[in-house]
Write a structure and sequence with these properties.
Helix content: over 70%
CATH superfamily: MetI-like
Subcellular location: Cell membrane
Transmembrane segments: 55-76, 88-113, 119-138, 171-195, 215-236
Radius of gyration: 22 Å
Shape: globular
Oligomer: single chain
Number of helices: 11
Family: Belongs to the binding-protein-dependent transport system permease family.
InterPro entries: MetI-like, MetI-like_sf
GO cellular component, one term: plasma membrane
CATH class: Mainly Alpha
Number of strands: 0
């Protein structure tokens, strides 16, 4: 807990300054204060937490799981075969050159307001860091270590499982920490551009009503979701990769 003390102090200071500025401006539809946002969140708790939050979480979960499977698979393929790497790597980079705000409406045209238009947008935002980080992790092993294992009679399968996979684990968790907030953002953006439920959709609806605190309420929830998920991943990383902490 001590290592988060500085972050807590900075966070409290930020919200206190925000509260003071918002009260000075006194224009809640432009910049609502944190206290008004919390009050509005409580007032809107029923639709937020029973309808829109589950919808966003489901999109986030599906998009992240598919990205993990797809991204890890591509990373392994590229690490095993140089020709595949040369063919796939540029395509993976190209997918990140088109803004998701331009693609999300197209996905709505293809899939309508179903969950898959939003899941696809989430996948496009998250699979890139997973693919690249895991690929770099698999390539991070030293050639000397591979040659040593070969002299002990290790096969390519042994080298991959006993050397490359453990070396890639820290990179995998780093990719997760990047992808989780991106998955939440991707879900929210896709809901904003075309959906019938979700926190992004709810925020857009509040904006049309000039309800500043109502617009910020889903954003606060999205931020908390991302922070909680990254915190859980950090705990899992410390539990599963004890050897890195001992080095």
């Amino acid at each position: 807990m001590k290592k988060y003390t500085s972050s807590i102090i900075v966070g409290i200071s930020f919200f206190l300054i925000w509260e003071a500025i918002a009260r000075k401006i006194d224009a809640a539809y432009i910049l609502p204060s944190p206290s008004k946002i919390l009050q509005r969140t409580w007032e809107l708790r029923d639709p937020l937490f029973t309808v829109h939050l589950p919808a966003t979480l489901w999109v986030t979960f599906l998009g992240l799981v598919i990205s993990l499977i797809f991204g890890v698979f591509l990373a392994i393929l590229m690490s095993l075969n140089g020709k595949i790497q040369n063919a796939i790597y540029p395509l993976v980079v190209i997918t990140q050159t088109v803004p998701i705000t331009a693609l999300a409406p197209i996905f709505v045209l293809w899939f309508g307001y179903s969950i898959w238009s939003k899941v696809l947008a989430t996948i496009l935002m998250t699979f890139f860091p997973i693919t690249i980080n895991v690929y770099d992790g698999l390539r991070s092993t030293k050639r000397e270590m591979e040659e040593l294992l070969i002299t002990y009679g290790a096969t390519k399968k042994d080298i991959f499982i006993k050397l490359k996979l453990p070396s890639a684990l820290p990179y995998f968790f780093s990719a997760l920490k990047i992808s989780v907030p991106l998955s939440v953002i991707g879900a929210a953006i896709s809901e904003w551009l075309g959906a019938q439920s979700g926190l992004g959709y709810f925020s857009k609806r509040m904006m049309t009503q000039l309800d500043g605190a109502g617009v910020f309420a889903p954003i606060v929830i999205l931020s908390l979701i991302a922070v909680i998920f990254v915190f859980i991943i950090d705990i899992l990383e410390n539990k599963l990769i004890k050897w890195r902490n001992e080095v």
